Amino acid sequence: MQGPTVSRAGCLLAGGKSSRMGENKAFVSFHGQTLLDRALAALRAVCGEVTIVGDPAIFGDYGPVVPDLFPGCGPLGGIHAALSHSSVDLNVMLAVDMPFVSAELLRFLLREAENGASGAVVTVARTSRGLQPLCAVYRRAFAPVAELALKGGNYKIDSAFEAIPIKVITELELANAGFSEKDFFNVNTPDDRRAADNLPRL
Length: 202
What we know:
Layout: E1 8-13, E2 29-30, E3 33-34, H1 35-46, E4 49-53, H2 56-59, E5 65-66, H3 75-85, E6 90-95, H4 103-114, E7 122-127, E8 130-131, E9 135-139, H5 142-151, H6 157-161, E10 166-169, H7 171-176, H8 190-197
Parallel strand pairs: 1-4, 1-6, 4-5, 7-10
Antiparallel strand pairs: 2-3, 6-9, 7-8, 7-9
């Protein structure tokens, strides 16, 4: 099996305020690990380098950290900071609050990005809940697109996608590869955390 390579960078988005959770989501425990440790393990299994986007004072002990260049602008700001810092073309973005994301899912997304149609800037899955941009593969070419949107006060990631070619992985393609919407479940509130315990791992 091919080992990690620095041609694939992992970017963990951990800069959210966690206001709905009532505590920093990164340190919420799930199945004996913090969400931070689970996400870092998945990324490090497939990427040669992993950077945390967040507060260096909070995450400095866990690996390289970069702060948002546009603070308070949500996940799009984190994606922009990660891509602005990255030195490689393929960048796996993962939000810290997605406990069911596995290394196998990230490898699948990377393969789709590498084998995708020429010119696709972002490779992203779509489930019944819509696009899943917080577990997706971004090329560095998305950085200026994100910056333009942020400077214009447009913080919705899906809206930024309208300006670029993207590759969308359908629900059927996910299912055929052994994945489902449950893999993209995110934990925003204490109720979400409790619900996650009742979601079977596939």
